[in-house]
């Protein structure tokens, strides 16, 4: 890549996703010039993408290697916030990686935003297996890659994840009530990703957690916030959870859904087992910054 005057150029894929839009805004706040790739009509889209002041939108076809390579030209980093199954994670993101290499981009951040799948068991989690496969591909490419691992998105605690059961005044858990769980808000992930995208020396893996809490901690927190006594509810052992996952998956009609119920349960199992724990944490690599706590999220302050 030729040296250039002016702000660093960052190419962003996945603007249409919730995390992608947040990363775009964070990059702009960091002073980067953002080229956001949006799918050209007729090329698997177009997907809705937010209008964000200060970025350049480039319509691309991921099957058109020359245009994708041109979109990456002179970039300091390519950031992928793409989300999906094999056609997206391995195929579209793979083409993006090839384009970045061909354009001479020095750095690539794949869409690895998850718990630590480098420590979990292959075959236990479909979506993490896809990221594990892509990690092998990017590690074989002549480009410096950085994976950002952030645990679970803390916003899931407000209702989407079956953990805090407000009507029952219970915190549901599997296995050990004192198992630490990693949570990070999407905004915190986006701001950290923007800083990493502009860090020419960022390491292969960065692990962050906005908050680390146990099921017991969550119950105590909910008791304090609501003034009502919350308890914990052990749904069963991890073995029982695994059996439930197998049954639910067998009964679920085949679809291209990224997060069917059984997939969410697979993720919950990787958290409850402790295999996906993030350690050591790299929260302070880009200076001391405020991290949004689970208490703030649940209380509507995040």
From TrEMBL:
The keyword NADP applies. Pfam families: NmrA. Keywords: NADP, Oxidoreductase. Residues 11-229 form the NmrA-like domain. InterPro entries: NAD(P)-bd_dom_sf (IPR036291), NmrA-like (IPR008030), NmrA/Isoflavone_reductase-like (IPR051609). This is Nucleoside-diphosphate-sugar epimerase. It comes from Methylobacterium goesingense.
């Amino acid at each position: 890549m030729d040296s250039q005057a002016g702000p660093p150029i960052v190419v962003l894929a996945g603007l249409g996703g919730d995390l992608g839009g947040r990363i775009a805004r964070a990059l702009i706040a960091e002073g980067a010039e953002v080229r956001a790739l949006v799918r050209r009509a007729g090329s698997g889209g177009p997907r809705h993408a937010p209008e964000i002041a200060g970025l350049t939108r480039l319509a691309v076809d991921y099957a058109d290697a020359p245009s994708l390579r041109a979109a990456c030209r002179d970039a300091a980093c390519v950031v992928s916030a793409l989300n999906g199954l094999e056609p997206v994670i391995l195929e579209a993101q793979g083409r993006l990686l090839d384009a970045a290499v061909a354009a001479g981009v020095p750095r690539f951040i794949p869409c690895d935003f998850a718990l630590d799948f480098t420590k979990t068991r292959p075959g236990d989690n479909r979506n993490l297996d896809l990221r594990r496969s892509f990690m092998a591909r990017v590690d074989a490419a002549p480009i410096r890659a950085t994976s950002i691992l952030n645990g679970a998105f803390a916003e899931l605690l407000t209702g989407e994840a079956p953990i805090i059961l407000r009507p029952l005044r219970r915190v549901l858990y599997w296995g050990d009530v004192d198992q630490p769980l990693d949570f990070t808000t999407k905004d915190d992930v986006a701001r950290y990703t923007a800083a990493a995208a502009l860090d020419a020396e960022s390491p292969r893996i960065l692990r962050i957690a906005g908050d680390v809490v146990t099921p017991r901690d969550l119950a105590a927190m909910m008791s304090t916030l609501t003034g009502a006594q919350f308890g914990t509810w052990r749904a069963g052992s991890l073995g029982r959870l695994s059996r439930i996952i197998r049954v639910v998956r067998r009964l679920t009609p085949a679809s291209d859904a990224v997060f069917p119920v059984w997939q969410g349960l697979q993720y919950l199992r990787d958290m409850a087992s402790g295999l996906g724990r993030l350690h050591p944490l790299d929260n302070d690599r880009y200076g001391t910054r405020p991290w949004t706590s689970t208490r703030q999220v649940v209380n509507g302050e995040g």
